[in-house]
Amino acid sequence: MKKTLSVILSLVMLFCVTGFSGCRGKNGSDSETEFNASALKEDYSQAGSAMSSKEINVYNWGEYISDGSEGTLDVVEEFEELTGIKVNYTTFDSNEDLYSKMKSGGISYDVIIPSDYMIERMIKEDMLQTIDLDKIPNYKYVSDDYKGLFFDPDNKYSVAYTGGMVGLIYNTTMVDETPTSWSIMWDKKYDGQILNFNNPRDAFGIAQYLLGYSVNSTDKIQWENAAEKLIEQKPLVQSYVMDEVFNKMEMGEAAIAPYYAGDYLAMYANNPDLAFVYPQEGTNIFVDAMCIPKSAKNKEAAELFINFMCDPEIALANANYLGYLCPITEVVNDDRYDYKGNEVLYPSEPVETEFFHNLDQDTLDLLSSLWEKVKLA
């Protein structure tokens, strides 16, 4: 069921207590995160030398880790240097792409970072290994508010990485009004200047919010109505995007796009004509977490990587790059932490939110066929 911000205050307040992540390199903060590798070197070099495997495969969202650009810490490179373990790091565009790749069995990943509802699905389908939390001493820094969540109530399969909400980005030089509703994405005045998500849960979610439906509905008629709403919109859509949204919005090639709040901050840093709102009908709130697939070949090294990402020093550097919520309690108390109190991340006005949950197989099949219908319309 949908929840107002006041109802989910415990979750939103954890963002205030455990920290909404900001960014320096990606999001343009002026502060720099000083990093002292020597404090970590002994622990991680010893752990890395004890590993039988010297290589892991990590699969993450694009634009979703501090990468060394503009003076930020290259987290992957630092892990490699401290541990001697090579990281084969690749990216995906959507949870559905991740799932398809995992099902294909073409490559074995050791660490993946899906979203809540996809973790719920992967647990149900026996695609994930349990994580030995004794091998992740830095788990103690993860806020209790990020533990025991609906998708992994016993904390067996996941360790929180970050989270956030989806909102509407618009170019103030191209949009006449301050939007308050998802309905602006159906406004013919902006024909050819509208972007939409290129993944079914987020794209359908927007139509469902607008129609007043739950994004976790199992009502076939509601899903079909949402598909018709997207088909109605399609002639106005310039393109369906994921990471392509950055260039399009930063370069003023589109006027309106739904996307993740943290990524908006990155776009705004490069184009101050952009603005952001949470539409009144509601939006998605999410948590992404680190998991180890059943097919992983290097579980010990995977757990070391997860522990590394939860280290307060690494989490701070990552949070100051990303612009998403940070679950590590130590981060928000650090004077080097950026974007505390940012209105995009700490909305002072109530926001209607809903988590995506895993859907039953009949509904998943229906969603797949309806998404294909929308794309072919």
Tell me the number of strands. 10
What's the architecture of the largest domain, going by CATH?
3-Layer(aba) Sandwich
Q: At the third CATH level, what is the topology name of the largest domain?
A: D-Maltodextrin-Binding Protein, domain 2
Number of domains: 2
Q: Please indicate the percent range of residues in DSSP E strands (runs of 2 or more).
A: 15-25%
Largest sheet: 5 strands, mixed
Main structural class: alpha/beta
CATH class division of the largest domain: Alpha Beta
The percentage helix is 25-40%
Q: Give the N-to-C terminal Cα separation.
A: 31 Å
**Dominant shape:** globular
Overview of this protein structure:
With 377 residues, this protein is an alpha/beta fold. The protein has 2 domains: 9-163 and 287-332, Periplasmic binding protein-like II (D-Maltodextrin-Binding Protein, domain 2); 164-285 and 348-376, Periplasmic binding protein-like II (D-Maltodextrin-Binding Protein, domain 2). It has helices at residues 9-18, 38-49, 75-83, 95-104, 116-124, 200-211, 220-233, 245-250, 261-270, 299-310, 312-322, 329-332, 361-376; strands at 55-61, 86-92, 111-112, 159-171, 194-197, 237-241, 256-260, 274-277, 283-290, 353-354. Strands 4, 7, 8, 9 and 10 form a 5-stranded mixed β-sheet that branches. The chain has a 3-stranded parallel β-sheet with strand order 2-1-3. Helix 3 (75-83) links the parallel strand 1 (55-61) and strand 2 (86-92). The chain starts with 8 loop residues before the first helix and ends with a helix. Mean pLDDT is 89; it is low at 1-25.
